[in-house]
From TrEMBL:
This is BMA-PFD-2. Residues 10-26 have a biased composition (Basic and acidic residues). Pfam families: Prefoldin_2. The lineage of its organism: Eukaryota, Metazoa, Ecdysozoa, Nematoda, Chromadorea. GO terms for molecular function: unfolded protein binding. The keyword Disulfide bond does not apply.
Length: 150
């Protein structure tokens, strides 16, 4: 993915006095910092999406396990992974724990979805503030062809 920060100087560094070259270098550094900030925000957004997917998978797994355990007798043995240890329980003791855990996951999921929405808004505001637009590969190729003709 390519980004373009509006007002970008293209090849203006050639044959400029030293002061102007320094100014162009500073502008490039500023634009690089802006793009780095954008990439950081996008990475944070991706991390939230990955974590959200992981928690949703855990929730579905808990729901399936609860559904299966409810059909079984309460005094049957079952095993539960606690950290890295497999612990033996009876279904009647594990079921309330799993149901409680499932109830606690829903508010956490809602919170994560809110965080994702907020991060999206923050990203949108950042792109608008710095006048960043996404450049498609086609536009990038066309720009390269125009530069080669010059």
């Amino acid at each position: 993915m390519s980004y373009e920060v509006s007002g970008e100087s293209k090849g203006n560094e050639k044959n400029l006095p030293v002061k102007d070259k320094d100014k162009c270098t500073e502008e490039k550094d500023d634009k690089n910092a802006i793009i780095a900030g954008l990439q950081q925000l996008r990475e944070q957004q991706r991390n939230i999406v990955v974590e959200l997917a992981r928690v949703e998978d855990d929730k579905r797994e808990h729901e399936r396990v609860i559904q299966v355990l409810k059909k079984m007798e309460g005094d049957r043995k079952c095993f539960r992974m606690v950290g890295t240890t497999l612990v033996q329980h009876e279904i009647k003791t594990v079921l309330p724990i799993l149901e409680s855990t499932l109830q606690n996951v829903s508010p956490f999921l809602n919170s994560m979805k809110d965080n994702l929405i907020e991060k999206g808004k923050e990203l949108q505001e950042y792109t608008e503030k710095h006048k960043i637009r996404y450049v498609t590969e086609k536009e990038l190729r066309e720009e390269s062809e125009r530069n080669m003709k010059k």
